[in-house]
Specification:
The chain has a 3-stranded antiparallel β-sheet with strand order 1-2-3. It is α+β, with helices and mostly antiparallel strands. The protein contains 3 helices and 3 strands; from the N terminus they run E-E-E-H-H-H.
Length: 97
């Protein structure tokens, strides 16, 4: 990251999607006495961490429950939702389209 704040990807090893981290400096025009959780003279940042694999698992659980799909059907449906159509999704899953 260059300068205050920014985004970065944190690698997690083979076959794992990286964590997506965003850092945002928090600036307030309020007096510090009005915002007691900000320490005097301390910089404060908001840090968010997104796990794309968690989002994918949640999507697959929802597809399974809503449509009664098998694990293989759920995986293919999730790949199709990633984009590029059915044939590309089948290629990414290693199955015939």
């Amino acid at each position: 990251m260059a300068g205050p704040g920014g985004e970065l990807a944190v690698p997690r090893g083979l076959r794992r999607l990286p964590l997506q981290v965003m850092v945002i400096p928090l600036r307030s025009k309020a007096r510090l006495a009005v915002v007691p959780w900000i320490g005097v003279g301390a910089s404060v940042d908001v840090v968010t961490v997104n796990d794309p694999e968690f989002d994918r698992r949640r999507l697959e659980i929802n597809l399974r429950r809503r449509f009664g799909l098998t694990a293989a059907e759920t995986g293919l449906a999730a790949e199709i939702l990633n984009g590029n159509g059915r044939k590309e999704a089948a290629r990414r899953r290693g199955i015939s389209g």
